[in-house]
Structures are given as structure tokens and as C-alpha cells.
């Protein structure tokens, strides 16, 4: 192992000693209650399969017959989740073929950040993760299952399913993805039209035409944002069948992988020699592997929130310092839009996750000695699935990149460090994604322009007031203020000013999309302005220094002078679009550096 990876892992183990032991003790107690329906009374038992087909009922009369739960985030609004409509029948048929049954245990909500971006509904987005976790628990709490399959792909959905599944960690759990849509208009062309529209040089009709050529069919959006970062992480934690992340939907190979999931889940249920519960797969080492994958591929900054909450659900305490230290030694070996010009389909064709896994293991940057749903050892994930005469088989993935503009070996990377860094200083703690930012933009010092919401910044842009060097401070965007919406709609406007040659950066207690790129952005600032953090005291003209190399986010105002000012007050909480229903979650939300979660007590 790389000595830094080993040291970070060891301190996570030590930091998590009590919480992890408590979690494993609870999972052992749940297992002791007995597997599947065997523990239910006759009345409970009958209710559990009253509406099942007759053949399934006969199987279910045997309390020892395995039963697999399906928890799905299917809806028609998300292109990534629309293909999930076809999965339950495939899963049920595959289960019957081996003498088992599968039941659709429950659905979870799934909102599309692409639809709500810049809209009031985005204020529900982060908290939907916790709602999904609770919905997963509701689905599994019938306690009539021997294993569970999680059907979900996008931004908050996989983290929510993961947190919910962790509460039932005595069960084997396999995540079943849907895969990316086919490639549309090039990412460069999409970005070009967006920039023209932001400058008023393209019409809305031209922008819509471009966007519809980008997002044009079923499957995950093909840029490397949070959704596809989710799929990478499920491979790195060993919760996917190997190589299943980026196989396109509605293809024979995808259907074969879907059918293989319930068969494998039954094979690793309690009572078999290969019993592999979720709690054995997800541990300190597999969490470090997920972080390593995120850094090596330039993944989404949203996971500096989600991974902390996900890890904590399994008793593992992860911190931003862990991300930062691992980033300093984990090379960036992938360039996928917005960190490069090509999309995840090109990434997959160039070698994909099998290549990334091999590189990280060979460099000692990921732990090989972990348990996975495919069996012991992460080396299984340097293989790829194929159909051989209609039969699903796995073969070794390529050991060499098939396109060095997209994937490179760890000893000849795009950058010597990973894509995420911790910033600290007079404005608090924040994270920055560096992998898509040009080196000359990673350090700047400029006067602040303060905005209380993203609409005010966009209005200033339209009035032509941003033609200067500035650091945009967009505050009261944290979890307690308004649910911590993504501010991705600011990227085109800020990018236009950057392209004009101005020094431009963003500092906010909100989030940026996993698709955000070239504008340096210090995000997730904590303490947030709503809690009286330093952002609440910043004024127009204050000089702010952002230095991603040194990990500094500083304001050139003495601390005593800054905190002696009268702090700004948050705008009134928004109502409508369901936001009023989430008021209790805003009050309960933890700090950004603790996952911004409503489900756990403060660390």
C-alpha cells in the first residue's frame, strides 16, 4: 500500500472504532433474528405474499425459500431511471429460475437535478437523499427478505439507497444500475451554445435544440457528474457486479447483468457458505477505495457530502482531511467531461472501470483485501462482462489505455494529484474541485461581490456589472438556510467572464453540480452564513484570496474587524414547490463537513 493511503485508512479505523463496533453489533443482532420470512407469524406470513402469483405462493410457503427485495427509484422523469421499469420482471424471472422469489418491496422518490437546476425545487434536492434513505427503510422493514437489490442511479438516489441499505446491513445488497444513454452532441458544442446564450448571442430556441441533442434518450446523462460518479463508487466499494456501471440500457448485456443480480444475491444470502452481507462489504477500506476512485477520475464534489453521510451510516467516520490527504497522493488518471472533452461512453470504451481499478490497485492506492458482492478481493473489478453465446462471462479488462487522452496509467497521469482539495482560512472550511480548472486559475486574489442568492448574481451579469476581477460570494445557500441547492446555473455566466480574461471565482456555502468545471469554486463553506459563519460578515470590496495549491480561503480583513460587523440576515425561507414541508429538515441538518445529513446526531 502507498504509505499515505495506509496511514489515512488506519486513522479512519481508529476514529471509527466505537461507532463501527456499535454498527456491527446491531447488524449481528438483526441477523440473529433469523433470515427471510421464517421469523414471521402465519398471519404476517400470509400478508407478505397474498397478491403473489400462484407459483410464487407455492415457493413462499417454504419459509426457507429465498426471497429477494427490489427497491426501485423508477420514474419517467429521469432518463437514467426510465429503463428501470423493465427490471422487476427480469429480476423475478431470474429468481424463479433458481427456485427463489423476488418482490417489489417499495419505491423511493427520485428527482432530477437537471430539471430543477436553478428552480425552487432544487432546494429539496439534497434532503431528498435522506427521504430516499427513510423510504428504503420503509420498503425493507417488512423483514421478509433474504437479500435486496437497489435500483437507482442518479445524484441523491444512490447515496439515499446506500444509507437506507446500511440500516439493514445484515442482508446482502447489490446495486443494479441502468447505464448511460448513447452519446449526443459533443460536450464542447453544448458548452459553446450555453456560453453564447449567457452572452445573449444565441436564442432560447437554439439553446433548447442543443440541449435536446445532448439529453436525447433513456439512460444516465453522459457527462461525468454525480450520477456517473455514483456508479464508479459502487464499483469501487464492491456493491455492483463487476463492470456493470457503464453498460448501456436496453441491450442484451445490460439485461443479462440485471438477471445475474438476483442470482448472485441468493448465492450470498445467510445460510450459504458465501454469506456476504452489506456490513461486510462496506467498511473502512472500501470507503477509502471509493474516495480513491473519486479522486483518480475527477468525480463530483457532491460526494464530499454524500460519502461522509454514507460512511457514517455504516459506522465509519470520514472527514474532509481524509479527502485532502488522499488527493495529494492519488493521481488524476481520467479526463471525462467536464474535466475533459469526451463522455462516459468514451471512458468506458477506453478501458473504463476495469482499467481504473487495476491502476489504483497496482499503485497501492486502493485496498485489494476487501469483500465484494462478487467475492473476496477488489481484483475481480478489473474484469469486464461479455456475452459468450448468450451466456454472461467476465474477462480481464485491458491493461493499457485505449485512448490516452481519456485514460492514463497511474505512473503517467494527467495530474499528479486528485481532483478535490480542502480549503481553510478566515472564511471557514470549504472544498474545491481542481481537476477541471486550468492551473493559472487556481490562485487568485480579488474583491468580493456579495449576493444573497443566485438570481441576484445572474441579474448583475445581465446588467453588465461583472466585467471586472471579482470573487462572487453567494451566501445563505447552506443546508440550514435553504437546503443547499446546486448553483450550476451560475457556471455559464461566470465562465463568460473568465473567458474574457478576468480573474473570477465563486465562494459559497451552497453546492455546485457534479458537472461544474472550469470556474474555481470554493463550495460547501462551513460554518454556513445562516449559522453566523464568516460569510455572513463579508461586504462588497473585501479582498478574498483563494489558493487551491496551498489550501487557503482567506479574507484580507482582520478577524476582530470582520466579526465586529453587523452580520447580514438570511432572506425569508422560500415557500411553495413543497419547500415548506422540508422546514424541519433545514433545522435538523448537520454541517456540510459532516455530510449535511438530517438522520444523525451532530458529530
TrEMBL record:
Broad class of enzyme this protein falls into: lyase
Cofactor binding comment, as recorded: Binds 1 [4Fe-4S] cluster.
InterPro entries: 6-phosphgluc_deHydtase (IPR004786), Dihydro-acid_dehy_C (IPR042096), DiOHA_6PGluconate_deHydtase_CS (IPR020558), ILV_EDD_C (IPR056740), ILV_EDD_N (IPR000581), IlvD/EDD_N (IPR037237)
Catalytic activity from the UniProt record: 6-phospho-D-gluconate = 2-dehydro-3-deoxy-6-phospho-D-gluconate + H2O
Family: Belongs to the IlvD/Edd family.
Keyword Chaperone assigned: no
Residues binding [4Fe-4S] cluster: 154, 221
GO annotation, biological process: D-gluconate metabolic process; Entner-Doudoroff pathway through 6-phosphogluconate
Alphabetized GO MF terms: 4 iron, 4 sulfur cluster binding; metal ion binding; phosphogluconate dehydratase activity
Pathway info: Carbohydrate metabolism; Entner-Doudoroff pathway
Keyword line: 4Fe-4S, Carbohydrate metabolism, Gluconate utilization, Iron, Iron-sulfur, Lyase, Metal-binding
One Pfam family matching this protein: ILV_EDD_C
Protein name in the entry: Phosphogluconate dehydratase
Protein's job: Catalyzes the dehydration of 6-phospho-D-gluconate to 2-dehydro-3-deoxy-6-phospho-D-gluconate.
EC number: 4.2.1.12
The keyword Nuclease belongs to this UniProt entry's keyword annotation: no
Listed cofactors: [4Fe-4S] cluster
Gene Ontology cellular component terms for the protein in this record: cytosol
Domain spans labelled Dihydroxy-acid/6-phosphogluconate dehydratase N-terminal: 66-379
Domain Dihydroxy-acid/6-phosphogluconate dehydratase C-terminal: 405-596
